[in-house]
Every structure is written in C-alpha cells, then in structure tokens.
Amino acid sequence: MISKQPSIILVEPQLAENVGMTARAMMNCGLYELRLVNPRENHLSEKAIAASSGAEKILQSAQIFNSTEEAIADLEQIYATTARHRDMIKPVETASYAAENMTQALQNDIRCGILFGPERTGLHNEDVCLANAIIEIPLNPEHCSLNLSQAVLLVGYEWYKRQINAPELQFITNKTTLADKEKVLQFLKYFEDKLDNCGNFRQSEKRERMIINLRNIFTRNQLTLQELNTLYGIINYLNRHQPD
Amino acid sequence: MISKQPSIILVEPQLAENVGMTARAMMNCGLYELRLVNPRENHLSEKAIAASSGAEKILQSAQIFNSTEEAIADLEQIYATTARHRDMIKPVETASYAAENMTQALQNDIRCGILFGPERTGLHNEDVCLANAIIEIPLNPEHCSLNLSQAVLLVGYEWYKRQINAPELQFITNKTTLADKEKVLQFLKYFEDKLDNCGNFRQSEKRERMIINLRNIFTRNQLTLQELNTLYGIINYLNRHQPD
C-alpha cells in the first residue's frame, strides 16, 4: 500500500451502491482513505458491500463527518471535482495535472483530499469554495456526466499511474526467450533452402523480392525460440505432405 | 465528432446493462463505433437504454457479429484488453501507450479496434491471439478487476485526452479579469495605510515581517478586480465597525 495518498471525500452521496462502487474504484487505484460527509444511505449495507466487489475493507474503515469543513479539517490541500465551469475564481486543472501536483505535494508531506459531490447535483458552491483548485476531467462536452464511481476511478487512475510507473511497453515471452539473430538467420536460410528445392522457385524472377519480403516478415516480429521451433515444424509438415 | 476513431468491440457481453453503461462511457470519451460479438442479451432492451444514460444512439447504431473474426475483418490494427498476463507471446502496452499508438495509426488511416471480453472470464485466448498487441491497464495488483464499462472508460479516456489536448491548467476568472500589479500594489498600500492608522501597528517591531507576509499572501493568489473590490469593502467594514 502506498502510504502517502490523497483522501477521497464523498459529500452527501445519495446511493449506498455508488459508495460501494466508489470503494471498488478506489481499491483499483490503490486508494484506501474514504471519508463520507452525511451519506444518505448506510455505507455498510448489503447493497454497498456487494457493489464494492471485494473492497469492503475501505467501506469499513471509512470515516463519517457532519460537514465538509470537518471532513477536510486535518488536510492541507483540497481539490473539488466538477463537471462544468462554476462561477468560481479558481485554478482549474485536468485530472492528470492535479495528479502530478498531488504526487509532489504528498511527497512533501502535504496532506491532500479530493471532494466529489452528490450524484444528482455535484458539489455545492459552498464546498467548491473550500478547495485550493478544481479538477475538471477532460471529456466529451456533448456527454460529460459521469457516474460518481467513474469520476473517482479516472482521478484515482491518474494518481495511481504516477505511483507505479508501469513500463509503457513490455514484450511478454513467458517461458521462452527471444531468439538471437543467429538462430533467426539459420531459420530463414533453412526456409529459403526448402523453397529453393520446391519446383521452379530458384529460377523465379520473383525469388529475390520474395526472399526480402520473407526476411522482413520474420525479423519484424521478434521471434522466440519456441516460435522458431513451431515454424520449423510447420515448414517440414508442409514440405512432406504435398497435396494430391 | 472525431472522425478517425477506434471501434470498441465487446466480445460476448453478458449483461445488457453493461452494454448500456459501455455506451455511456464511450460517449463520455467521444467514441461512437460499437461492435458486439454474440451479445447474450438484447442491447436495445429498456435496461440497456436506461444504463446508457443518454447514449442510446450508440446502442442503436451498434453492429452485431457472429464471431470476433467477422467483427475485426475490415480493421487493420487490433488491441486486446486483458487484466492479467496470458500465455501469449505479444507486446503488452499500457492504455496510455496504446492510445498514443492508435492516435498515430488512425492519422495514417490505419483502422483500429479494441477487444473487450465477457464480464466473467475476460477475453478467450482465441480472441487475444487475433490482436496485434495487448492493453493492460496499470491498476492495483491486489484488486485489478474492473467492470466492463470501466475498462472501456479508462481506455477511451486515454484516447480522448490525446484528441483534445485540454489545457492542463486554466485560471477561471469568469466575468472579471485579473488585476494588474499596479492595482494590487495600490490595494496593498491602502491596506498597509489602514493598518498604520490602527493603534500601535506603525511602531510594532513585527511591522516589517507582517507587511512582507501580507504582500506574499495577496500576490501569491492572482487577485481579480472583483476580488480587490471585495477586499477594499471588507477592510473598510472592519475599520469602521470596531468591536465594543
């Protein structure tokens, strides 16, 4: 568990199911600190637990507050998530930019929290004005309304990405390994010899071009030792079992 | 609508509600091309339409196929989303990296599609092996299972971000504008004069430090003209109505 993390603060959530789904989204993103301001329904109801889909420990450890002011009292940097511009004079950051800022802040022991409003209305202006900045998730302006848990998921995802720095591209070879170029060239030579022994391939005017295409095909895609063996087998199979 | 966009391909989705929620998530991300391979339930049922929350036009224009092969036939670059490593020799990309690659590919008129598997099992290996690459969304390994629509949302979000390049940080001033430095300094001078006229502030040994703190407070947060007027009013109010 990443110890320095922002608190997720749901202000007056209406449906227990959405609180449960939020817990699930939080756990997806390695976020465990949930605060609830005046939830309308019981966040430990069966519905909530079922919707959390295995993240009930987040629901169980959630802190409950009577006001947003109390919920943010021990924190130092607060973000308010809104789907639309408000009549507020405030910096508006993308989820990505805010995640970067929060990561920096948390590293400097500045405690952060993110406010999410009630499902139907979003945050009240009285809550937004408590925040240092607004997070606006860049979404299709024709359809930017998100389910509460999805808003938490996107903000949490941007934060989590920065904590783990997953490699952008991996080549998974499982139990086998990449073939070195000697083995790939040996295979290509074997393939070409087989072709040369087939009918009039050696004399074909297309031979040179075909060999180049063949080499491009099989060098472009990083063959593994296991795959080379499969290819040897297939060529032999084709070569031995001529059609009638 | 962004004309060059990847197709979202749901392979054997189980619940109509999830197809509806997927349509909603797609529309959030400006994605309109939905393909369904053997959906178990009717994707135009009331449940599906309600879950799409205003994105029913995506459901109505969805194309239905009998096999993944048919669903990808007219496309050139296919991604398979998986939550866990498979016994597949294949590049594995983050959602972010794949979104960048797809953006480039689409600009070069390479048609792209993204496969999402059934809710309970995820994609079958027979589908994964049809893809050029795997997308693995970097999530908490202790809890990486996502709802179908949430997986679509995260992949779609990464793609959409690259299409619009929303400004990372905006300072919203609405109907007012930022005060220029002359006006801010005039205000600070006014404030300091008021203070100097208060009791023994002018002689205080803390005066210099307090003036510097005051200037830092009010220059750090980009005051607008409207806010300057509010501050003038507040200072006058405080100054005129001394406590008894």
Mean pLDDT of chain A: 92
Biggest chain pair contact, residues each? A-B, 55 and 55 residues
Name the beta content range of chain A.
5-15%
Distance between the termini of chain A: 64 Å
Helix content of chain A: 40-55%
Order of the strands making up the biggest sheet of chain A: 3-2-1-6-4-7-5
User: Main sheet of chain A?
Assistant: 7 strands, parallel
Poorly predicted segments of chain A: none
Strand/helix succession of chain A:
EHEHHEHEEHEHEHEHHH
Query: From the helix content, strand content and strand pairing of chain A, which structural class follows?
Result: alpha/beta
- DSSP, total strands of chain A: 8
In angstroms, what is the radius of gyration of chain A?
A: 29 Å
Overall spatial form of chain A: elongated
Keywords:
alpha/beta; 244 residues; homodimer; seven-stranded parallel β-sheet; elongated
List the helices and strands and how they pair.
The structure is a homodimer of 244-residue chains.
Chain A: E1 7-11, H1 16-28, E2 34-37, H2 46-52, H3 56-60, E3 63-65, H4 68-72, E4 77-81, E5 90-93, H5 95-107, E6 112-116, H6 125-128, E7 133-135, H7 148-164, E8 169-172, H8 181-196, H9 207-220, H10 225-240
Parallel strand pairs in A: 1-2, 1-6, 2-3, 4-6, 4-7, 5-7
What does this structure look like?
Two copies of one chain form a homodimer. Chain A is α/β, with parallel strands linked by helices and 244 residues long. Chain A is 45% helix and 14% strand. Chain A has helices at residues 16-28, 46-52, 56-60, 68-72, 95-107, 125-128, 148-164, 181-196, 207-220, 225-240; strands spanning 7-11, 34-37, 63-65, 77-81, 90-93, 112-116, 133-135, 169-172. In chain A, helix 1 packs parallel to helix 2 and helix 5 (95-107) crosses helix 7. The model of chain A has no long low-confidence stretch (mean pLDDT 92). At the A-B interface, helix 1, strand 5, helix 7 and strand 8 of A face helix 1, strand 5, helix 7 and strand 8 of B. Strand 8 (169-172) of chain A pairs antiparallel with strand 5 (90-93) of chain B.
